[in-house]
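Posting for a labmate who doesn't have an account.
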Amino acid sequence: MNVDISTLTIFIVLFAIFAFLGFYGARWRRGDLSRLDEWGLGGRRLGILLVWFLMGADLYTAYTFIAVPELAFKSGALAYFAVFYVGLTFPIALLTMPRLWTVSRNRGYVTAADFVKDRFNSRSLAIAVALVGAVAEIPYIALQIFGMQAVLIVMLIGLGFPPTRLTLDLSLLIAFIVLAAFTITSGLRGAALTGVFKDILIWITVLATIIAVPLSIGGFSTAFHTVKPIPYSYLPPSALSAFWTLAVGSALALYLYPHAINGSLSAEDKKKLKYGTSLLPIYGIGLALLALFGILVFAIKPAYTLSAKYGGITSVPALLAYSMPSWFNGIAFLGIFIGGLVPAAIMAIGSANLLVRNVVKEFYNLTPRGEATLAKWISTAFKFLALAFIFVVPLSYAIGLQLLGGIIILQTLPPVFLGLFTNKLEGRSLLAGLIGGVVSGVVLTAYVNHFGVITTTSYPTPIGGIYIALIALAINLVISGIGTAIAMAMGWKPKEVIKTEELVRTIEEK
């Protein structure tokens, strides 16, 4: 295995640079970090490349780097649902995020729930959107830590140390203390700078590995010929409906997560947000290459053996450890490791913004400084809650809860996405629809998994499996539509609290 003291040295040196960038964020493009929009949105001053890197940091997480090749390793072509869904995501983002950015800029919104509250004149609906977003985010953060664990396991084995639970937990605890410290100090500025650093390392890793490994083994054909009988070149007909409904549902859900919205609202202007989002499909190309790592591992026998022993989650670090130089593995391992830390910071900031702005502040008066201070501490609590989650919850349960998080976050689509285009939906009906969607999604998921560990989110139907999130969303929309019709019949009329002009034009452009 090509892991030695040079690997560890480079890993530590690069981690020190990562930490420096995180703390330096407080001095970069100085702002009043005692204000929530400055701390949590970077003062809305990120340009095209920074928006691109920041959103890429959300997409190219440690878990993505580990889970997509793992799925290819276990199930073959099914892993390419991730590439399909990423391709669908960006048109949705271009359709919705510029409008949300514009109205947020005009009215000083920090979260999507701020917009929902005014749009539908409903504090209860805004609180519900905030709580659903925060709950869905916790297992998402936790899964990043599993990706980091996979790197630590392979690195410790290569250095001759047994990957004990104590060693892994202590390493993660130290990393999260550093992360929490610079997030409190620098907010989203620190996450943006470290996101650039992390993405550079990840791109170097992906491009170098996808060229070097096939050259060393005699081409991709060697890897494909050694693949076990998994359907890597086609999808079984029974999986088609589950494949495309999962891709569509995941694409609709991604930009409803607090961290994705937070990243979008941090753009300097609408045009830069559009350009930055337009460049994101480049990450989709990288994702397609990354999925091939799960196939290449079959051609490196020691890597395959290690992955079979410790689980597919170690397939990428094992592939690197047995095929790339030891010094390079220091770069690659650090890239994957901080690929968990950077998104965790952004996710925790997004969730803290929601809880402070749309839950706590609804019941207690907070000064701008008090608002920002509370958000900093809640973001810290979120990170360590996710870390504790990993310490006590088995991987299978964490993955299941993350799948459930994807189902419930999609239920915020009507008030957030549809709200950007119409105000002709009644607030209490949307709240009833949201509750109906969340409850039906949870119940259906529990039912198809026989009320045990969640292993599938596909509901069997006569036309094949359907992603439960879409079924729950249909129930959500029906309840919202019927409720709105009844309200209109009883005399309710939509109020134009937010003018259409405020959704499409910034104040400076008037």
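Reply:
Got it, the structure tokens are right above this. Strands lie at 458-461, 464-467.
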